[in-house]
Structure formats: C-alpha cells, structure tokens
C-alpha cells in the first residue's frame, strides 16, 4: 500500500507515546507510523497490542542516541513529521543518575535533529514534546510561553537543554520545529513510578499511599486523550518556530489526590489511616501553573473532566491488575536506590466507580 505520509514517533512504546501511536494508526490508515523505542524499563509491549499487526504500523527497536540507526531511518524512510517523545522521564531517578538523563534527553535530541535536518526527504514538522517543568516552580505567577525557563531538577534541566537545541535549528536553519510544554499527563497504561499509578498500585496491595514531604505540593493533571488531541492539532495547525503550553485548570494537591483515591475504597473516617508521610526528594517544585491561550486560539480545549478522567484511569488499573506485573519491580537501571518493589500477589481494587 502507498502511504500519503510517514510519521516517526520516538518513545512510542511509553505512556504518552503509545496513546499517540494508537491514535495515529487508528485515525490515519493512509499514514505510515514508525515507532522508534528502545523499550526501556518503564514500558510494556502490551501497550501497543491493539496496533502491532496493522499494516500502517512499524516498530523499530533502537536507541535514539544511536546516530547510525537514526541516520539510516532518515536515509531510507520519507519521514514527513516527527513527534519526539523518547526520554528518561522520572524526576526522582534524575537526581540519582543525571548523566543518563543528559545522554538520552539531550544527546538523543541532538542526534535526531541532526539526522532529520540532513535527511534527503526533509520533514515538514519536528514536534518536541517538552514539559511545564522547564519553567520551574511558581507559587503565584502563571507561566506563558514567553516566561523564562528556570528548571530546578536534572530531568527538567535536560528537557530545557533539549529545547534550546531544537530552537537553534529553527533560528539557524528555519527547520520547522514546534515545542509543546504540557502539564502532568495521566491516564491508562502509565508506569507505576508516576504519582497516580503509584498510589493506585499501593492501594491495590492494601498498602498506604506514601506522600513525600509535608509541603503543599500540587500538580495540574491533563487526561492523556486531551494531550494527544493537542499534539495532533499542532501537527496540522501549529506555527513553526513556536512553543505551545498544553495546560489544564485542574490543579490538585497531592494529599487531596491520595485522599480521593483512598476514599474510593474505604469509609471517610478511615482515610487518614491510609496516608503515610515519607521524607521528601532533594528538591521539589510546589506547582507549575501555565496558561495556554495560544493553543486555545487554535481551537483546542481540554474535554475530559477530572471526574471522568480519573474514573477511566482507576477502572483501567482495576481491569488490568497484571499489566505491569512483568516490569513492576523494574526501576531505571542507572539508579542505585530503587524504590521498594510492591510484592505479589495483586489483590483486586474494590473501588466504587
Ligand atoms: N507524563 C507526563 O506527565 C509528561 C508531561 C509533559 C511532558 N512529558 C514528556 O513526554 C514524553 C513522554 O513521556 P511519558 O510520560 O510517556 O514517558 P515514559 O517514560 O512512559 O516513556 C518514555 C519512552 O521513551 C523510551 N525511551 C527512553 N530512552 C530511549 C532511548 N534512548 N531511545 C529510544 N527510546 C527511549 C522509553 O522506552 C519509553 O517508551 C517525554 O519526553 C516527557 O518528557 C511527559
């Protein structure tokens, strides 16, 4: 079959990447979707089961830092657009192994940009999926795309550094890049090291939700389907050389999040018994408020309410208690101090949905 477009997704086996790949494969049978991913500890091949036999989907197992491989892809495939998501993403691990984060997140981006820029078939879009964390924390200021970057942990510092590389290809060569900076994205299939699946996994094992520190930390949570819609809209309507915040007004204190998830399972009077406060990580940002007028002007709006998004997410973890069982104990291999692995067997969650 002749395809009208070829899209390369890096990190397409991860949480957001797998939702993006599934959406592209389903919505665009006439587009060829390539997924370049080295299957790091945080992903499961099951995330892409629904598309793996589809004619318009090709998986390339490999490292985005491998310049021979990446150059080969661009020399042999007519890649029209790139969504670059491959990254090391766990903030806590980034304190333990900053160089591995630098290698994948910065060097990997450099390799990909260079190969894409030199490709015979020049891509029309290079979309770099970055994060609100590049702004650093704020207690009162709401960040827009012109706010300065003040990353405060090794993960966000490498994402900011990669952004500078991406921007330099626009500034110097007018290579058609777009950068997205999104709030926390949540939903089905997220690996258990991130906050919502971590709380759900602990509760599944009748363990307490562990809350780091006593500071009033909160996060803005955007449901994954809404994030994917934003990325696809930017592919079609985004202006090259621009940065787009992808945000939500749904801000939830982490303690409240834990309470909400616990409440689904136990009477209100017992909720506090299921919370445990543990020492904080070295440096934690309190909140990342962003405004995303530029994206709203293109016609995007978050459509999934928190109530609906968390309902779908909890239901998915309830229906798939064994999904992460192969990798549940996996931690970033570069890190010395892994979090304690939750022991099997998994007991079903009994949440009221
Ligand atoms: N999850 C969020 O809340 C959030 C918010 C804003 C931005 N982002 C960004 O979105 C992107 C995806 O995040 P996610 O939550 O899906 O993370 P994830 O950890 O679930 O997925 C990352 C993917 O990258 C792959 N990968 C890692 N190193 C690689 C390498 N060297 N070569 C090829 N593939 C490699 C992994 O195997 C995995 O499939 C990241 O760039 C992240 O910075 C995430």
Give a brief description.
With 353 residues, the protein is α/β, with parallel strands linked by helices. The protein is built from 10 helices and 12 strands. The model is unreliable at 336-350 (pLDDT under 50).
Treating each run of at least 4 consecutive H or I residues as one helix, how many helices? 10
CATH topology value? Rossmann fold
> Could you say which small molecules are bound to this protein?
nicotinamide-adenine-dinucleotide
Extended strand count = 12
- Kindly name the structural category: alpha/beta
Major β-sheet, in short?
7 strands, parallel
The CATH superfamily appears as NAD(P)-binding Rossmann-like Domain
**Beta content:** 15-25%
Radius of gyration equals: 20 Å
Strand order of the largest sheet: 3-2-1-4-5-6-10
């Amino acid at each position: 079959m002749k395809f009208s477009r070829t899209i390369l997704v890096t990190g397409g086996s991860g949480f957001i990447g797998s939702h993006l790949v599934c959406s592209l494969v389903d919505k665009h049978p006439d587009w060829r979707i390539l997924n370049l991913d080295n299957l790091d500890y945080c992903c499961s091949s099951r995330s892409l089961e629904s598309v793996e036999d589809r004619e318009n989907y090709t998986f390339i197992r490999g490292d985005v830092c491998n310049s021979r491989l990446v150059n080969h892809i661009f020399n042999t495939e007519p890649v029209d657009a790139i969504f670059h998501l491959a990254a090391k993403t766990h903030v806590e691990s980034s304190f333990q192994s900053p160089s591995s984060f630098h290698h994948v997140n910065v060097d990997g981006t450099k390799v990909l940009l260079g190969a894409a820029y030199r490709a015979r078939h020049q891509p029309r879009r290079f979309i770099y999926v970055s994060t609100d964390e590049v702004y650093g924390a704020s207690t009162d200021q709401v960040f827009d795309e012109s706010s300065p970057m003040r990353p405060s942990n090794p993960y966000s510092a490498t994402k900011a550094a990669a952004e500078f590389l991406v921007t330099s290809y626009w500034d110097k060569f007018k290579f058609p890049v777009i950068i997205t900076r999104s709030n926390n994205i949540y939903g089905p299939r997220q690996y258990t090291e991130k906050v919502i699946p971590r709380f759900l996994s602990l509760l599944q094992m009748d363990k307490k939700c562990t809350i780091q520190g006593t500071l009033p930390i909160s996060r803005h949570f955007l449901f994954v389907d809404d994030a994917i819609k934003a990325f696809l809209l930017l592919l079609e309507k985004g202006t090259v050389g621009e940065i787009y915040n992808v945000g939500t007004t749904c801000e939830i204190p982490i303690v409240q999040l834990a309470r909400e998830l616990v409440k689904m399972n136990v009477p209100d009077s017992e909720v506090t018994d299921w919370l445990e406060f543990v020492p904080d990580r070295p440096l934690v940002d309190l909140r990342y408020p962003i405004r995303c007028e530029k994206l709203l002007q293109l016609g995007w709006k978050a459509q999934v309410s928190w109530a609906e998004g968390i309902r779908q997410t909890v239901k998915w973890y309830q229906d798939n208690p064994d999904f992460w069982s192969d990798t549940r104990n996996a931690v970033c291999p570069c890190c010395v101090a892994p979090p304690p692995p939750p022991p099997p067997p998994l007991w079903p969650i009994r949440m009221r949905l």
